Amino acid sequence: MIRTVVNTASLLGWSWIAFHTIQAILADNPAGEDLLQVVLIAQVVCASETLQIAFGILRGDLALSFVVQYTRLMMYFITFPHTSVSSDVVKTILLAWSLTEMARFPMVLFPKSKNLRTIRYAVPLITFPMGAGTEAYAAYLVFLTTENMLLKAALGLIVLVNVVGGTVWYPGMVKKVTRSLKGEKKKAK
């Protein structure tokens, strides 16, 4: 019951984020403080899922979840407020995140729906390159301006994982959509 409430609230939160991000894009306004505060709340809920996966409460790919949450938190706290990262870059990342989560949470709420599963796998075919590419670009912009070697390493890791990892992971994402459209289940390893 609690998970259903949290997942429903997350879906509503990410929908609100998408709506307000699109409004900001259309009005050519920066992402406002209220929008960024809701993003932080929604992102903390998503990050808590990584801990739940680690403790066996939720099923999921722990390594992938960690990488996604690490990257998102670095974007939020390091790149979004940085002067070398434009408002358009921030809004593009927020749009990618929110559309991805809007496709994911309905499947989480209704896991037996084959249509929702297909949508959940299909949407990232667009939002993943958009988000990962823009995250890599934002990390690179900050990488160029920072003197802090630890921060340079953390940002360089994001660029590397998003560009190289994204290229490696994308064909598998396409296979998931294809299997889902055909109604096939993943083969056991």
From TrEMBL:
Keyword hit for Secreted: no
Keyword field: Fatty acid biosynthesis, Fatty acid metabolism, Lipid biosynthesis, Lipid metabolism, Lyase, Membrane, Signal, Transmembrane, Transmembrane helix
GO cellular component terms attached to this protein's record: endoplasmic reticulum membrane
Pfam families on file: PTPLA
Compartments reported by the entry: Membrane
GO molecular function: very-long-chain (3R)-3-hydroxyacyl-CoA dehydratase activity
Main subcellular location of this protein, as a coarse class: membrane
Domain of life (superkingdom): Eukaryota
GO biological process terms on file: fatty acid elongation; sphingolipid biosynthetic process; very long-chain fatty acid biosynthetic process
Transmembrane segments: 122-143, 149-170
UniProt xrefs under InterPro entries: Tyr_Pase-like_PTPLA
EC code(s) of this entry: 4.2.1.134
EC category: lyase
Pathways per UniProt: Lipid metabolism; fatty acid biosynthesis
Membrane topology: Multi-pass membrane protein
Signal peptide range in chain numbering: 1-27
Family recorded in the similarity comment: Belongs to the very long-chain fatty acids dehydratase HACD family.
PANTHER family hit by this protein: VERY-LONG-CHAIN (3R)-3-HYDROXYACYL-COA DEHYDRATASE (PTHR11035)
Protein name, per record: very-long-chain (3R)-3-hydroxyacyl-CoA dehydratase
